[in-house]
Structures are given as structure tokens and as C-alpha cells.
Amino acid sequence: MSKAGKDNAVPEKITRRKLSDQVLDRLRDMITSNELMPGDAMPSERALMERFGVGRPAVREALQSLHNSGLITISHGERSRVNEIDAGTVLSQSDDIARLVLSAAPGNLDHLKEARRMFELGMVRNAAARASAKDVADLRALIELQRSFLKNDMAAFVQTDVRFHARIAAISDNPIVLSVSNAMLGWLFEYHDGVLHWQGNEKVTLDEHSKVTDCIEAHDVDGAVAIMGQHLDRSSAAFRRSG
Fold first, then answer.
1. Which of 64, 156, 162, 190 could make a disulfide contact with 149, Cβ separation 3.0–4.6 Å?
2. Which fold does the domain 19-84 belong to in CATH?
3. pTM higher than 0.90, yes or no?
4. What is the distance between the alpha carbons of residues 31 and 42, in angstroms, rounded to a whole number?
């Protein structure tokens, strides 16, 4: 570059980071290095102030950021504690974002249902290939539990439906798969009015669950995928934007 070009180059600005951001980085390092383990109480604000040489506002802001991200839990009147971090913890922090995304445009609900369908068909394929007798027995027990709510408890019927699909996800023995499945179902049920549009299809739902379970027990992968696909397509209409 010519001297003139160097003289005209845009200067790279050096920004001074907030003290609270620097404290936040140090606290994260303490957690990721296992200096602070899940369940441990966080050091007191005064101890952190002395350790990092900063004032109370910087410490409090950093602790609040950790709390907002799910790394610690702040309880009034008690010491803050480090949380157990797993896939479920991480995804639960996305609930507010999911609410905003689903509310932003009507089409986003359809995108979520499409994503859930793709994900669930993969889960049932895996379940049919590897399910144990215990897995099948648990699924059948959930179907009978769901049947017991048929006439007198619609909310419990729907909640047990969620448990049935979560149990299929658990056959993967993969905590990330289970957490993603639970998150997507939670977003569908919490932010959209599924219960009101479920009634009238209860017996069909139970029949489809039974057929899916039959295929899983027989290790009929293609059959399980086909029936689950029909089940999801039919029940998709249950999830409509509330209000």
C-alpha cells in the first residue's frame, strides 16, 4: 500500500471494555475450569470485589448476566449457586427467543411444525431400529395412561401425549435429541392453543400411538415412519396460533 493509502486508511479503534464484561469473563472461566462446580455457592459479592479489584455494580451486573444465561441461579436471601449445565438448560434459555420468533410472523409456526416433523420422523426411525422390550412397555403404559384421561381430563390427556413423544425421543439415549424434542413440543404447546383444537380426535390419536408402538416393537422402521408421518400431518392442525 502506498504512503497515501496508509494515511487514508480507517483507523482501528480500541474500545475499552466495561468492567462488568471483564468480571463476567472471569466468572465464566471459574465455572468452565471447574473451580466452581455445579451446586457450589458463588463467592460473596465482597469476595469477588476484592479478588477482581472492582466495585459492587460491576460484580452485580456480571452475576445478573450469568443468571440470565442460566449458568447460575440467584435467590434472594441466599447465596447464588452454579447450575448443572446440560442441553436442556441451554435450550430452556431459548424460550423467550422462541416466543418472539413464533409471534413475529404467522409462517414461523409452520416452519416449527415442519422442523418438528423432520426431527420426529428421524427419532421414530431410530426407535424402531433399537427399542428394547422395556421401551415398548413404557410406551404402552403411557398409551393406557392417556386413555384413562379420555373422558375427564383433557389437559392431562395432552400432557401425556407429550410424554409419549418424549419417551420415543429417550430411546435414542441421546440427551441432546431428548432436549431438542422437549423444547420443540414445549414451544408448540405453550405458545399456541393446542388443547382447544384437540377434542374430537382423541381416539384417533390413541389408535395412531398404538400402531406406532406396534411398529417399534416389531422393529418395522418403514412402518413406524409412515404411521408417525400420518399422525403428525393429521395432528398438525391442533397447533394454531392462540388468539
1. 156
2. Arc Repressor Mutant, subunit A (1.10.10)
3. no
4. 10
CA-based nearest residue to 121, from 215, 226, 237: 226
Q: Any idea where the domains of the chain sit in the sequence?
A: 19-84, 91-238
Q: Burial level of 100, CB count in 10 A (0-12/13-18/19+)?
A: exposed
The set of cell numbers assigned to 191 is 405458545
Close Cβ partners of 43 (under 8 Å, ≥ 6 residues apart): 51
Q: Tell me phi and psi for residue 41, to 5 degrees.
A: -75, 140
How many other CB atoms sit within 10 Å of the CB of residue 141?
Answer: 12
Q: How far apart are alpha carbons 10 and 62 in whole angstroms?
A: 33
Residue 105 is classified by DSSP as: -
Residue with cell 500500500: 1
pLDDT single digits (tens) 190-239: 655 444 445 567 889 999 999 999 999 999 999 999 999 999 988 776 66
Whole-number Å distance between alpha carbons of 65 and 80:
12
Q: What count of other Cβ atoms lies within 10 Å of the Cβ of residue 15?
A: 5
